[in-house]
């Protein structure tokens, strides 16, 4: 045996012995970086992981990844979970609304959200906002009215899966129609925007001198003697809802229809990408031109599927979970990584360029919206990036076989199957 061969055997034996000693001492194992130690796998005494103190099991059981985080989670991170489920409802005759703004969800700087329901004939009174309003119908039907800055009105009926977008300052109204009315979620392109501080028709008229109202509308002051002194906000209309064509004819302007369509049928569009693991529908200014400050993606992940490791380079991501059950880990510098669980009605938030994935942890399709304060949807895939980087360079970073790296797919998957 040569000295070279003998040295190799001795070195290999030393490495094996060191590895065995490290494992027996509870040092890092595969899937547990262990620096700093986090996760139940690090417990040498299981009693240390018990929770004998006060608990709310109904709440705690909704968050298994908070109660027992993966060992790959590390350090802390701003809370990126919120929910409409625990937001206070404002209920009035005609419907209700609840909101999650930055006041409730500190990390959400870019956008805020409102979940609203209008019963049959329920009206969200004529109003406007300083922010743009993007909306998705999640149940039933609704009638919207709007007028653009050139005095061109539009009236449309929208159904489940449809969107609308009103640029800042354009006045509009919403009304539930059909036998069940409609439910929808609004997104404003400002995290501090609130549904409770909109500019309302009733409030403006109530706080304008009667003689000014008379001069403005060319009517006697007595015509305004019964205007409300309190806002309507949401109210129940007493009159039957006329057919759409009748209303459109009544409001028709000699200047015609607005330049851009304010509604879009996301429900009927073909998916932008389909894989064995699910699908993605992207809606931005390329197919919904009026929506200049909000881009969106509707993501469907089949059971066991994975929204691949990725990030968005141009905007924060606000997520709204519609169906199913999922888990997301968010990665930041530090390193910091944290995992949270999501169910219908929950909201997630990922800051611009933070790495993340979303995994379906349930038995039915996981469906959620990704919302961005941007005109275009942009995404970078980790697997695609590494597949399009020289294999030897990637191998030096990962200690992987370059031949395995060459098997990475150069096309973006978006959704991976189980």
From TrEMBL:
Region (Disordered): 30-58
Pfam families for this protein: Cupin_1
Signal peptide stretch: 1-27
Domain Cupin type-1: residue ranges: 85-225, 264-406
Cofactor note as given: Binds 2 manganese ions per subunit.
Active site annotation, chain numbering: 370
InterPro entries in the cross-refs: Bicupin_oxalate_deCO2ase/Oxase, Cupin_1, GPI/OXD, RmlC-like_jellyroll, RmlC_Cupin_sf, TAT_signal
SMART domains in alphabetical order: Cupin_1
The keyword Ribosomal protein appears for this protein: no
Cofactor names: Mn(2+)
Alphabetized UniProt keyword annotations: Manganese, Metal-binding, Signal
Molecular functions (GO terms): metal ion binding
GO biological process, one term: oxalate metabolic process
Binding site for Mn(2+) 1: 127, 129, 133, 172
Keyword Iron-sulfur: no
Source taxon at top rank: Bacteria
Record-listed Mn(2+) 2 binding positions: 310, 312, 317, 356
Gene3D superfamilies from the UniProt entry: Jelly Rolls
Protein name: Oxalate decarboxylase
Species, as recorded: Nitrospirillum amazonense
